[in-house]
TrEMBL record:
<keyword id="KW-0813">Transport</keyword>
<dbReference type="GO" id="GO:1990281">
    <property type="term" value="C:efflux pump complex"/>
</dbReference>
<comment type="similarity">
    <text>Belongs to the outer membrane factor (OMF) (TC 1.B.17) family.</text>
</comment>
<keyword id="KW-0812">Transmembrane</keyword>
<dbReference type="GO" id="GO:0015562">
    <property type="term" value="F:efflux transmembrane transporter activity"/>
</dbReference>
<dbReference type="InterPro" id="IPR051906">
    <property type="entry name" value="TolC-like"/>
</dbReference>
<dbReference type="Pfam" id="PF02321">
    <property type="entry name" value="OEP"/>
</dbReference>
<keyword id="KW-1134">Transmembrane beta strand</keyword>
<protein>
    <submittedName>
        <fullName>Type I secretion protein TolC</fullName>
    </submittedName>
</protein>
<keyword id="KW-0472">Membrane</keyword>
<keyword id="KW-0998">Cell outer membrane</keyword>
<keyword id="KW-0732">Signal</keyword>
<dbReference type="GO" id="GO:0015288">
    <property type="term" value="F:porin activity"/>
</dbReference>
<dbReference type="GO" id="GO:0009279">
    <property type="term" value="C:cell outer membrane"/>
</dbReference>
<feature type="signal peptide">
    <location>
        <begin position="1"/>
        <end position="21"/>
    </location>
</feature>
<dbReference type="InterPro" id="IPR003423">
    <property type="entry name" value="OMP_efflux"/>
</dbReference>
Length: 446
């Protein structure tokens, strides 16, 4: 291979790791995060485990069949206190005994076992609610990381544009100073603004690398974002705050609290059932065979039976009533936790809605500021060329334009994140809502 052909290969090997990362959309990022997140995989395993609790609880209500069997070989040495002449009894006996059978139990009335089934159903529902909450938390984390990368890209583009403009103006100010058209202070001010713009560009590059690292960690592979905050965007439209507050019962936190109440109810039922009679149907069949006996003969016995058994606890050291009092307090605690969950969820909904509203107003304001900054920058440049504006005014206009670009990018990312947080607050965040925000960013949904 010729040396000249090695240059592209070496350049490709020396490219930064992030330069090779493929851009992903918001929907793709969330999908990859859901497939990769260890916390979500743990929640999924816990959900699947909780599903078995309902089956375990149901098993207490179904027939219980057990079989048993035994085989024994026994040797007995007998010593008589006095000889018995009439009966020639043996002093040594060898016996082999076989016993086997099958027995079936079917609960007829057992409140305690019914409580196990209720606990299993509540545990299954709680596992599902916990998984959904973990899923939405993963989606929010991936969306926040994706929007941060988009924001960092726009801020870097603004910093680069500002650096290029400041460099050009610094060179122009120095050239004007060299021929005596500008004072030294103007040349120094332009050089200072250029150096500051370079520092801001470096800071923006580092922020972009950091945000990419976070996104790639969540997705499990190197990733980048190609989207940007276009000036044509308008704030997302949402329902009135009151309609969101009416969905408080669907929130993940409230769902978990309600399942805790169900568990407390089942615990109270179990405590009550421990003090009530228990009735069950019993049926079975046994066979016992002995190969030798006292008189050297064998025998076998076969028994079949069925009937109803009833047990009633009378005294258990006071534990039955103590357990009932404890379960009653646990139910009161679960009910109070449910009220607190509803209150905190209502607050979260109000805060998310106000955040969405505030970022919408901010977007409109930053869009107007960006339009004004563009017009000011163009006017300052044109005025400077004809001698009506000073170099300082042009530098100030360039700074304000860069600041407006960065501020608009921040407001767009914050608006998208506020919308997703509002959906998550009421337990509605899913593929449809993510697609809606993705369409809004691309300008296809308003």
């Amino acid at each position: 291979m010729k040396p000249v052909k090695l240059i592209p290969c070496l350049f490709a090997l020396l490219l930064p790791q992030w330069g090779l990362a493929a851009p992903v959309s918001l929907e793709e990022a969330i999908r990859d995060a859901l497939d990769h997140a260890p916390a979500l995989q743990s929640a999924m395993a816990a959900r699947n485990s909780a599903r078995e609790d309902r089956l375990l609880g149901r098993a207490w209500l179904l027939p219980y069949v057990v079989t048993s069997g035994s085989w024994k070989s026994m040797q007995q040495d007998v010593v008589y206190d006095r000889p018995i002449a009439l009966l020639p009894l043996a002093n040594e006996m060898n016996m082999k005994q076989q016993k086997y059978g099958i027995k079936m139990y079917q609960p007829l009335f057992d409140v305690e076992k019914w409580s196990y089934y209720e606990q299993g159903k509540a545990s299954e529902a709680m596992g599902e609610a916990a998984f959904r909450r973990s899923e939405r938390q993963t989606m929010l984390a991936a969306a926040a990381a994706w929007l941060d990368v988009m924001r960092a890209h726009d801020r870097l583009n603004a910093a680069r544009a500002s650096e290029q403009a400041m460099t050009r103006l610094a060179e122009q100010a120095k050239a004007s100073f060299d021929v005596g058209l500008e004072p030294v202070n103007t040349s120094l001010a332009a050089a200072s603004r250029r150096d500051l713009a370079s520092a801001q560009r470096i800071r923006a590059e580092q922020a972009l690398e950091q945000s990419r690292a976070v996104l790639s960690s969540l997705l499990g592979h190197d990733a980048d974002v190609a989207a940007n905050a276009t000036p044509q965007l308008v704030p997302l439209k949402m329902k009135p705050q009151q309609e969101w507050l009416q969905q408080v019962d669907h929130a993940d936190q409230v769902q978990l609290a309600e399942r805790s109440v169900d568990l407390a109810e089942a615990g109270k039922l179990k405590a009550i059932g421990a003090a009530l009679p228990k009735v069950q149907f019993v049926a079975g069949w046994d066979r016992e065979k002995s190969s030798s006996g006292t008189f050297g003969t064998g025998s076998h016995t076969q028994t079949g039976y069925f009937g109803v058994e009833m047990t009633m606890p009378l005294y258990a050291g006071g534990s039955t009533w103590a357990q009932q009092r404890k379960s009653e307090q646990e139910k009161i605690k679960a009910a109070a936790d449910l009220d607190e969950a509803k209150r905190s969820t209502q607050l979260a909904i109000r805060q998310a809605w106000l955040q969405w509203q505030g970022t919408g107003y901010e977007m409109d304001a930053m869009k107007a500021a960006l339009t004004s900054a563009n017009a000011e920058q163009e006017a300052a440049r044109a005025g400077f060329e004809v001698g009506l504006r000073t170099m300082t005014e042009v530098l100030d206009a360039e700074e304000r334009l860069a600041s407006a670009r960065a501020g608009y990018a921040d407001s767009v990312a914050s608006q998208g994140m506020a919308a997703l947080q509002l959906y998550a607050a009421v337990g509605e965040l899913g593929e449809r809502q993510v697609s809606e925000v993705q369409g809004w960013l691309t300008g296809s949904v308003h």
